[in-house]
Amino acid sequence: MDGTIVIQNLTKSFQGFKAVDSLTLTVKRRSFLGFLGPNGAGKTTTIKILTNLLSASEGQAFLNDVDVTKYPKKALAGVGAVVETPEFYPFLTPNETLEYLGTLRGMPKREIGRRGKEVLGTVKLEEWADTRIGKFSKGMKQRLAIAQALLHEPHVLILDEPTSGLDPRGMVEVRNILKDLKKGDYTIFMSSHLLNEVQEICDSVALIDHGKLLAHDAVSSLVSSSTAKAIEVRVLQPLDGHTIERISGFEGVESAAPLSETLLSISFKGDETDQARLLADIQALGLKVVSFKESGIPLESLYMSLITDSR
Ligand SMILES: Nc1ncnc2c1ncn2[C@@H]1O[C@H](COP(=O)(O)OP(=O)(O)OP(=O)(O)O)[C@@H](O)[C@H]1O
Ligand SMILES: [Mg+2]
């Protein structure tokens, strides 16, 4: 279907070493996939094959129904990509850069002007449209990279670690742009190292290691009741052993360990209703709860267990 990404049995060998190993993965139209995996997992290699920067050893990848391994030009016509830190000519302005890139893509001049304005608005660089890129921060360059990817109105976007190397503010700015894009008609494939980022902006997650797919599911199912999460509870008065023992026995509680006299870390399995009940149960013990919050990233425990198993 138009706007989908279908990867079938994709393999890339470098002198016998399989960087991508029989990868099969489908991204539904208008969904946002986070492609996670440790260093060397094969994320960039997969993305380079999807964007025809590398050839596949085996398998296919369909972008908008066209196999990029066979018909790269046609397959990539409706695709925008940001792969690796983009290098722009420092002496050009964003307007000049987009004009140059649009011309390379065969877009009519008027269309480039119209879209250029739109995409610079999307990435919040309109005020910088005529400033030389040499003056730009890394975050601004990354936003310009997203703008150029959107120029020819693609419906599929492929991004390799779009927030990597940015400072916290730069990261937030890029994430906000990606969140805005979710409202439009885009299918997005984004690699990342950052579990919190994927959890915050993606609909589904594919986790790979050693080139192999370990898990692929909706973010909401992956972080659901099946995985234990850490909850930190801070109370007003010091906790005693008896109280901690009682909390350890509450439904869904796997363990409860004091981090200080008034801070308890609870490993807990359950959905939001169960979690609300846990808080009520703790308060029913007569404890004055100052704060009750999930600590750490729910995806983290799943990630750690799957990656450890595959190593
Ligand atoms: N041109 C190449 N020749 C030989 N091996 C390569 C080549 N490109 C990548 N590899 C190897 O393939 C594996 C996967 O690399 P890849 O860059 O796809 O990982 P990644 O998941 O993007 O990692 P990172 O998170 O560090 O960006 C690594 O072991 C890497 O060393
Ligand atoms: Mg990479």
Return Rg in Å: 23 Å
The tally of structural domains comes to 2
Number of helices: 11
| CATH fold category name of the largest domain | Rossmann fold
Which small compounds were modeled alongside the protein?
A: adenosine-5'-triphosphate, magnesium ion
Cα shape: globular
CATH class of the largest domain: Alpha Beta
Oligomeric state, counting identical vs distinct chains: single chain
> Tell me about the biggest sheet?
6 strands, mixed
Q: Order of strands side by side in the largest beta sheet?
A: 6-7-8-3-9-10
Fraction of residues in helix = 25-40%
Q: What's the end-to-end separation, in Å?
A: 36 Å
Q: Which residues form runs of ≥5 with pLDDT under 50? A: none
Beta-strand residue percentage: 25-35%
CATH evolutionary superfamily of the largest domain? P-loop containing nucleotide triphosphate hydrolases
Written as H for each helix and E for each strand, in order along the chain, the element string is: EEEHEEHEHHHEHEHEEHEHEEHEH
CATH architecture of the largest domain: 3-Layer(aba) Sandwich
